[in-house]
């Protein structure tokens, strides 16, 4: 028996021993193997996954805790409440919505707080635009509206995702205002526990608990929700004393309230660059602190008025008997320099990889490099044990879409969705468990542990080529349509984009050449 022969026996996974080896082989049979799939999240990755699964005749239920599709591109002028500082654990502290409702029903002024806690807004700010042109982020069968430019706002991107969900009848599959609380594998089904928040009357809310069973689960919840707050001496006290003067970049919305202020941005990624450029015209002085990490953007990407400084060592705790109001803020850097009179601090320190609804696959007590062959999340810097960043190796009926970054997200995530639909429909075979493990371990050796493991900065095109070749080996002979590789137009656009980023980084071109501001 060939190890890639599909077995038509009507169950989710067939286990058997290869005659060539003692390896355990996973074969997803065609037909009724995966009939019903839960998709967690209705951002672009969740919506495209639902569309491709639906096109294979699979029943799909999409869970979305917000009231609209869009994920990170869904702009909300309100910010999510911040957790206690510091927050270095990948799993944010839980809240009990039912207790909150019991104490606050009837108090209309608390309505926004309930909604914000149940479905915290994402990081989209008012003037956010894409930094990859729309021509490189077009989903299959769904062109951007005529006249759309390369650079659009988050509102326009959300509308594009929404129109896609309507066009392909995905919106009818979505349970809005529904939060997934726990996902566990039973004897042969995945059990998904969720809560739905409904508004019964003015100021009155109701939470309905749900339990559903599925043959497979796709996690498409993104990775911009669990903020990372480093444990810097004095930071906790600053946040306690001046909650409005210290915030994470996830809560930034508009360049308002920075007039004449000295601002410290901690972090050297895209958020620090964007926020710095927005507030530069009004702020008195902006410092941008960096640890000198691999993911730091070049200094040439910053507004020329911003000064890059070394890593923060500590925040001086002010004397409470000081007559000065507000008290001066002093920050000490690791090189010994002191920054005086800091008025605002914005933590552009990123996010944890966190899946709190999969607690059995998380172990925050072990270092990232000590991950075993079962765990998904350790310190929150990466997701472990995923074949091609998608399929959970010990049980591929658990899949993830949307893990990698430094990609043309819309196009990249659609290819992942096509792979999931191909495998779950039985038209594409997974390798053996040992082969998936071998490929995963080679990738770990190549890229190392931690945040860089999911970076596609240099690997995007090669990864998609290999993924498409794998899909096409099986799918055509089993009645599926051949998946097209990235177009020559797309590849040319990417080459040009890489050239621009390189020349801006080297100071040959001004940052305005990127045209995404």
Please characterize this protein's 3D structure.
Helix content is 24%, strand content 18%. It contains ten helices and 20 strands. The strands form six sheets. The protein has a five-stranded parallel sheet, covered by helices on one side. A five-stranded parallel sheet has the order 10-17-11-12-13, with no helix packed on it. The radius of gyration is 24 Å and the shape is globular. GO terms for molecular function: flavin adenine dinucleotide binding; N,N-dimethylaniline monooxygenase activity; NADP binding. InterPro entries: FAD/NAD-bd_sf (IPR036188), Flavin_mOase (IPR000960), Flavin_mOase-like (IPR020946), FMO-like (IPR050346).
Distance between the termini: 57 Å
Q: Which residues form runs of ≥5 with pLDDT under 50?
A: 1-27, 105-109
Count of runs of 4 or more consecutive helical residues: 10
Mean pLDDT figure:
89
Number of strands: 20
Structural class by helix and strand composition: alpha/beta
* Order of helix and strand elements from N to C terminus: EEEHEHHHEEEEEHEEHEEEEEEEEEHHHH
**How large is the share of residues in beta strands?**
15-25%
Radius of gyration: 24 Å
Strand order of the largest sheet: 5-4-3-9-20
Shape: globular
**Main sheet characteristics:** 5 strands, parallel
Compact description:
This protein is α/β, with parallel strands linked by helices and 517 residues long. Helices cover 24% and strands 18% of the residues.
Tags for this model:
five-stranded parallel β-sheet, 10 helices, disordered N terminus, NADP, oxidoreductase
